[in-house]
Structure formats: C-alpha cells, structure tokens
Amino acid sequence: MALRALRLPADLVPIADMIVESFQYPENPAWSVQTDEQEQLVNGIRNVARIWPLMRLMGSLSPSMRDIFRGHIWQEDGQIVGATVLQRRGSTDVWMVGTVGVLPAYRRRGIARKLLTASMEFMRERGATQAILGVIDGNLPAYKLYEDLGFEHYSAMVEFDAQIDDPGPAPELPQGCQRVPLAPNDWRPRYELDERITPQPVQRYDPVTEGRYRRPLGLRLIYPILMRAQAVRDADFTIRTEGEGQIVARGGYTVPTRGQGVNNLRMRLDPDHGELAPYLIGTLLHEVTASSPGHRIDFTVPEWMEAAVTQAEAHGLQRRVRYLLMGIEL
User: Fold this and answer.
1) Which of 284, 270, 210, 212 shows the shortest CA–CA distance to 240?
2) Angle 111-125/140-148 helices, nearest 10 degrees?
3) Euclidean distance between the first and final Cα of the chain, in Å?
4) Which residue, 33, 120, 130, is CA-closest to 326?
5) How confident is the model over 199-250, as pLDDT tens digits?
6) CA atoms within 13 Å, Cβ hemisphere of 217
7) What is residue 90's three-state secondary structure?
8) Which of 102, 215, 233, 260 could be a cystine partner for 39, CB 3.0 to 4.6 Å?
C-alpha cells in the first residue's frame, strides 16, 4: 500500500475509472454517477491525457496552470483504490477539492482521511489560505470526516435533472432588458455580477475576486482545444437593464458534441430581479433541447438563488441531489 502524489498524465485514465466505480450508491441511486455522465467523464479525461504535453507547455508559461490538476492517490493490490483531486481557483489562494473517492471494498480503513490530510498539507505548501469542497446531503460518513478535519458547512447547492424533449415555445425577453452574448474569456461581466450578488457567508470561504475569474494566458490559448478534446461546446449570455446597462443575470449551457453526455445549464441571477427567472430557465431549456436533443438536462444552482430554484421546479426539473458546501481556513 502507498500514498503518493498524482503522476500526470499516467494517473488520469485510472483515476477516471476509479471515480466511476467509487461514486456508485446502490442504496441511493440519485447520488450515483449516471450512465450518460460516465461516458462523458471517461472520454473527456482520456482526451485530456492525449493533449497533456500541450497542457504541460502552457503550465510553463502560466504558473497557475500548474495547479489545475493536483492531488494524491492510494495504491494497493496493484491498482488505484482511492484519490483526491484538487484545483486552484484561478490565480487565487483558494483551492477546490473536487474529488475524494475510495473504492467500496477499501472503505472504513481511514484511507480517505489520509488522502485528504496529505492534500491539505500540500495546499498549505502551495500557499493556500482556504479550501472548499462539496458533500452530498445525507452522506454522513463523508460529512463527519470533513467536519473532523476542520471543514465548516457554509452554503448549499441543489442539483436538478430531467429528460425534456419539448420545452414549448421560447419565452420573450422581458421589457427593459437586453440580452448580450458573453465570450468564454470575457471574465469581467461574470466577476462584477457575482461580486455584487454573492452572500457574505459564501464569500468567507470562496471570495469573489478578480483572480478567480481572469483566466491565465495558457488556459485562454488552449481553451478551444480543451473543449474539442472533451467533445463539448458551450454558450453564455448576460442580461442587462436598458438605460443603466447593469448586468442583472447571466445564463449558459454546455452540451456534448458526440456520443452520450449531459446538457448542463448554468445561471446567476440578482435576487432583486427574480422576475427574470422564468425567462432564463425557459430560454436555457429551449436552447439546449434545440441544440442537443435527446440528452438528459442537468442544472445545479446555489440554494440562495430562491427564484431559480422555484422556476426550475415549475419547468419540470426534478431535485436530484443537495450538496452541502464546506470550507476551511488553512
């Protein structure tokens, strides 16, 4: 048995296979990685492994890109049986723990604790001041582990999904508003909206700063290649008020371009403009079903965006999982 740092790109494909097996919950099927997600995840990681030399080159040009895929693994019986996957939030000192997984046959032996403890020490060595992660509401063993290590519950996200083939006619943009396309590297509108509307308890652990949104040069250069490698494409837009031109919402989606996969929706909405929620949800559903028919739709939204949660349910999306967001000051 051995605990070690990730070795890239050699560990990418084995970790993808381990994640699929680790995140299966027969007693709670909604928690499990779904069949359509499995193909998209595994193929996406395999394709990233193929372009890893390019990503390594970009990392030499943009220091923050060196921390885009970090973590530790537990190796036993000739295979990877547990892993943590970490990522720096842009060029900030906040890190995200994206994965803490252990194969079912190797659980209840303290492996997850050892992996996460090693990863927390690594993040400190890299100058991290905070770390955040998400845990399924109801996954008590994982929640208790994170709590024991010092993580604190500070917010929540709700994940919805549905199979919608006909969302109905496209809604009309409310009067007094303007829809403006948002380019992938146009970070300032995203930053300015989130900085204004994100509640302070959330910003305690996941502060809204320019470094979180401004993509490093290397990532800007290879972003189109990454999207092709993962066989997805995306589109984003903002909603501005006419006259003042203030950004009050943004929406977007990512859809698969081949094979199986999931249509993912995203949205941020100023709570003072909750009346835009029906338009945003209706528009996103209409556009993804027209652009990528036949795929399941997934939508994860902060619980504090109450109008978005309400309208997701009104449009036929079903609650799948609630994630508790936890943070720690390192």
Assistant:
1) 270
2) 40
3) 28
4) 130
5) 999 999 999 999 999 988 777 878 888 888 888 999 999 999 988 789 999 9
6) 7
7) coil
8) 260
Q: Which amino acid is at 7?
A: R
Calculate mean pLDDT across residues 74-100: 95
d(CA 252, CA 186): 13
Of the candidates 35, 40, 37, 9, the one whose C-alpha atom is nearest the C-alpha of residue 232 is 40
The predicted model scores a pTM of 0.94
Within the chain, strands assigned E span 2-5, 70-76, 79-88, 94-102, 130-136, 152-162, 177-181, 232-241, 247-256, 262-269, 296-302, 318-329
Position 50 confidence tier, pLDDT thresholds 50, 70, 90: confident
Could you tell me if 248 and 273 are in contact, meaning their C-beta atoms sit under 8 angstroms apart? yes
Listed residue (38, 222, 3) closest to 109, CA to CA: 3
Q: Give the tens place of pLDDT for each residue, 241-265.
A: 988 789 999 999 999 998 789 999 9
The residue-averaged pLDDT of 129-146 equals: 97
Q: Which strands form 130-136's sheet, in the order they lie side by side?
A: 2-5, 70-76, 79-88, 94-102, 130-136, 318-329, 152-162, 296-302, 262-269, 247-256, 232-241, 177-181
What is the residue type of 302? Answer: P
Residue 44 dihedral angles phi and psi, to the nearest 5°: -60, -45
55 touches 48 (CB < 8 A): yes
